[in-house]
Amino acid sequence: xxxxxxxxxxxxxxxxxxxxxxxxxxxxxxxxxxxxxxxxxxxxxxxxxxxxxxxxxxxxxxxxxxxxxxxxxxxxxxxxxxxxxxxxxxxxxxxxxxxxxxxxxxxxxxxxxxxxxxxxxxxxxxxxxxxxxxxxxxxxxxxxxxxxxxxxxxxxxxxxxxxxxxxxxxxxxxxxxxxxxxxxxxxxxxxxxxxxxxxxxxxxxxxxxxxxxxxxxxxxxxxxxxxxxxxxxxxxxxxxxxxxxxxxxxxxxxxxxxxxxxxxxxxxxxxxxxxxxxxxxxxxxxxxxxxxxxxxxxxxxxxxxxxxxxxxxxxxxxxxxxxxxxxxxxxxxxxxxxxxxxxxxxxxxxxxxxxxxxxxxxxxxxxxxxxxxxxxxxxxxxxxxxxxxxxxxxxxxxxxxxxxxxxxxxxxxxxxxxxxxxxxxxxxxxxxxxxxxxxxxxxxxxxxxxxxxxxxxxxxxxxxxxxxxxxxxxxxxxxxxxxxxxxxxxxxxxx
Length: 495
Prior knowledge:
The protein is α/β, with parallel strands linked by helices and 495 residues long.
């Protein structure tokens, strides 16, 4: 059994993508590979076939391995609900809501669980590629660490440290990280990787030599800056504000925006432009407005009111097309009630009154993988995706149901989801991944193309595009890193 851990000098240096790349490379080379991240903090999550919740980064890494995503790849998921509090997900189920200090003091109780889960993976797979979180140099957190050097100790894994040169200061960050590690931790570090480099690598080489002389650790490669149509890792997403294509889709960038990976399939459409708006001045005249998911629906609705965006959304609803997903769907209704204080101290708040539904927050979270069929739109379209929500919608007399759920976690089902208004220009749904399938995506976009006199298009299958992009990613990284040396580090013969 072999293992390799990728840590970084900071958040958003590209750890998740490099882990995905290594997963695909090792898989291409004939090994049985699995990703692992003991603790992830993310508002982008996914539901497994078992109805368990996990971070999206490990989902992409699982696909890179040719595996169905499973919760054990990310046993602890933290979903921030405010600046100081997070919902803690353990093994795919809600464990509770805790402050940062409360969770920090709890970490030790999860250590044995993580060790057992990792040892189980060691028995089942040839190679485990482990991802750290943030930086191992957060010395204030070291005593209870279970995700960086603490995890490396549990796994007895060699470590590669990644630095992002695009942000500047990469040599200082790599050297500084090594300086703040203790002797035993330094011995675990077998190499560094420079990520997101633009320009001629020959200019960089003197700096690499000097860095190696200072930290006594070899640089195993320089990965160029690239753009691929893959899910954005948290914190690294570029929230573009420009219109760059004929179809203008605007997404409300909520303060607690979650599952913004829902829009990724739309980015693959050649005539579609995705931009994010945070103010009235940025609103413009989009062809479609998407109100995405939120980890604090009530708080984010209040924020929209304060910025004046709610009034613009209501005005736009008379002429434009609105899609609300999960929290965005709840906002479009008549009211939201939170009797158990799931999100805030607000027990009830008025919604935008654009759809005839109301939402009540439950104590228990709904986490399901689903398949559905349209019942509120022209034609019979099949969709698939997943639900992650605490709220339960109540339909009013004028509510027109959008979907019929026909499969729930692999079992037959028969219940409605979503709503469409009478005019048909405002829809809401709980289904995340709603655009992954081609039928619904084509329907929505071709309606806009007809309105604008644009040629109709067939949508490509998102999963096929993703697989092609993962192969491109593997090629870039394989050609950039000293793979012979990496195979030696993990005790495997170079293929």
